[in-house]
Write a structure and sequence with these properties.
By secondary structure, the chain is an alpha/beta fold. About 40% of the residues lie in helices and about 15% in strands. The strands form three sheets. A six-stranded parallel beta sheet has the order 8-7-9-10-6-11, with helices on both faces. The chain has a three-stranded antiparallel beta sheet with strand order 1-3-2, covered by helices on one side. α3 runs antiparallel to α4, α6 packs across α7 and α9 packs across α10. The chain starts with a strand and ends in a 6-residue tail after the last helix.
Length: about 325
């Protein structure tokens, strides 16, 4: 038996979250075997671990939706409950939790759930979306989970070393020191899944590899989980080269933000090109996340919105 407390705020916010006459609360109670009550501006949940986790996740997603849209519809509530609880779909259930370092890493939005399920169901997955939507984090979590369950024998994390306003040649140090800043986001995600000593040991044993895209040429990777991050900064030729590295019993996840291309002018993004070319291939999935899937600081959604809409014209 465990307990969880979720702060809500004002009584008006509580009504928006739980519905008029607690209609949404009753739906949650009917779907999850947990005790749920609201008092003093907080929602209290208690019960078995799985039930408490599911109820808490549903409420947190509803909070996000209310904060973003001002209210939620009964259809949205049903969709969120289905995503979290895992109503059967074509004989399968919704994605299982990714367990890392003694805690659960799981999708927090419907789009992220679709992404994780696509990784489980397909050998090649493309994911596009703005910063903060969990593209890299969830892919690395899925890779570590697959490694722990011995579904694959190696993780390869790849990034193009494309210059975004600065020059590699003027950075201090040897080649490894120069490319480290480009690989740092992948290492940061990896170290949230595994402790420092594990990461060191796996990298020393070549079980985990973090490499620039250029180092992939000429290789064939069997029994591996390969992630290409910041894929919008690949050229068409580089993307073709990368995708053809895929060997037997391997899984490839390609992620990127098509609104942040740092390639030279008039150079077509390999990510955009590949999504168009591969859409009819069997065994391939393409997931498009939106600013509604952003799970960083709440201001990130507003920042992305501001850049999508562009500067307001003066009258």
């Amino acid at each position: 038996m465990i307990e969880a407390t979720i702060p809500v705020g004002t009584p008006d916010e509580l009504v928006l979250l739980l519905g008029a006459s607690d209609q949404y609360l009753r739906r949650i109670r009917d779907s999850v075997p947990a005790r749920i009550s609201a008092r003093n501006g907080k929602i209290h949940v208690s019960g078995e671990e799985q039930a408490v986790f599911q109820a808490t996740e549903i409420i947190e997603q509803l909070k996000t939706a209310v904060g973003r849209e001002g209210a939620v519809t009964p259809e949205q509530v049903s969709h969120i409950i289905q995503q979290v609880v895992g109503a059967p779909t074509n004989g399968r259930t919704a994605p299982v939790d990714l367990r890392q370092a003694g805690r659960k890493v799981r999708p927090r939005t419907a789009g992220q759930s679709e992404y994780v399920q696509a990784i489980r169901d397909h050998d090649l997955v493309f994911c596009t979306g703005p910063a903060g939507t969990g593209k890299t984090y969830l892919a690395v979590a899925a890779a570590v989970e697959a490694l722990k369950h011995e579904q694959i024998g190696k993780i390869v994390l790849v990034r193009p070393a494309v210059e975004a306003g600065e020059s590699l040649g003027f950075l201090p140090g040897d080649l490894q020191a120069k490319i480290n800043p480009y690989l740092r986001p992948l290492l940061d995600a990896l170290r949230e899944m595994l402790d420092f000593e594990q990461v060191k040991r796996y990298m020393a044993d070549d079980i985990i590899e973090v490499v620039p895209l250029a180092y992939m040429r000429g290789r064939t990777l069997n029994n591996a989980f390969i992630i290409l991050d910041e894929a919008q900064n690949t050229t068409v030729a580089q993307m073709k080269m990368f995708l053809t590295r895929m060997g037997w019993n391997s899984k490839v996840v390609v992620s990127g933000d098509t609104s942040q291309v740092d390639l030279p002018p008039h150079t077509k993004s390999g990510l955009v090109d590949a999504i168009g070319r591969l859409r009819k291939i069997e065994g391939y999935a393409n997931v498009a996340l939106t600013r509604g899937d952003i799970v960083r600081h709440h201001l990130v959604q507003e920042i992305v919105r501001a850049y999508e809409e562009g500067p307001k014209k003066k009258r």
